């Protein structure tokens, strides 16, 4: 069964209260590496899609402007509380918004990040297309995610879990090769992160010349996601 917005909202309503305890520590190293690789400069405008409970917010330098969006009101509410607790309200804006259909103008941000979101969002290629649209041409895209394991045992388990995607709220079998083919990301680097390097940080340069929509064959990706 495929993921949709309602399934995601339902899952994260369930996960929200225990999210930091369950996924705070185990995913921490990946978030830290991503923010370091962003090489943020004073005044940079950063967009984080699927910001969740805002675990990454304290990692950003004080002289950048951060916009965080998420589909789940319950996750976002926790991010808002974190922001208030850390006194970050003046430089962080949080909004309830679908990252696959954002209301921001083209080229609004210097750097755009998605941490552990691509396996969760209903149409990953559409997500990347939107990230590319709102990022400045030549800006940077950062995607941190788990992709299907090449290990035959782990890969087998992931395939077995695949039919439970809707219930789990994420896709256990998510192929890096297919993702790269569908999104046509202009990769700068890929860095294995977290436990056993089981997750991957992708850093891509946003295209200078053409909108991502022309680069990715979305008709095919939408059909595959169905
Ligand atoms: C696994 S959590 C990751 C949260 C956070 N980035 C972190 O590092 O812990 C995935 C988050 O992405 C959000 N999400 C999934 N699809 C989304 C979409 N299309 N637009 C906005 N948020 C989305 C979910 O609501 C959830 O909060």
Automatic annotation (TrEMBL):
InterPro entries, A to Z: Methyltransf_11, Methyltransf_Superfamily, SAM-dependent_MTases_sf
Methyltransferase type domain ranges (all copies): 47-143
Sorted UniProt keywords: Methyltransferase, Transferase
UniProt GO BP: methylation
GO function terms (MF aspect): S-adenosylmethionine-dependent methyltransferase activity
Protein name as it appears in the record: SAM-dependent methyltransferases
Upper lineage: Bacteria, Pseudomonadati, Pseudomonadota, Gammaproteobacteria, Thiohalobacterales
């Amino acid at each position: 069964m495929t993921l949709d917005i309602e399934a995601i909202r339902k899952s994260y309503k369930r996960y929200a209260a225990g999210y930091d305890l369950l996924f705070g520590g185990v995913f921490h190293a990946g978030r830290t590496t991503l923010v370091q690789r962003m090489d943020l400069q004073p005044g940079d405008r950063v967009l984080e899609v699927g910001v969740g409970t805002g675990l990454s917010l304290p990692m950003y330098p004080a002289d950048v402007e951060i916009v965080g969006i998420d589909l789940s009101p319950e996750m976002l509410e926790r991010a808002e509380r974190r922001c208030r607790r850390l006194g970050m309200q003046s430089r962080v804006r949080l909004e309830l918004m679908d990252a696959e259909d954002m209301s921001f103008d083209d080229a609004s941000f210097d750097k755009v990040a998605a941490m552990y979101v691509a396996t969760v969002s209903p149409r990953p290629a559409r997500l990347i297309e939107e990230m590319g649209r709102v990022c400045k041409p030549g800006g940077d895209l950062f995607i941190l995610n788990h992709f299907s394991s090449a290990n035959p045992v782990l890969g087998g388990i992931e395939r077995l879990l695949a039919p439970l995607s809707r219930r789990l709220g994420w896709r256990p079998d998510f192929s890096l090769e297919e993702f790269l083919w569908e999104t046509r990301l202009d990769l700068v680097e890929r860095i294995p992160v977290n436990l056993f390097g089981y997750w991957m940080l992708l850093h891509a340069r946003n295209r200078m010349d053409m909108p991502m929509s022309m680069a990715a064959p979305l008709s095919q990706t939408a059909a595959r996601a169905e």
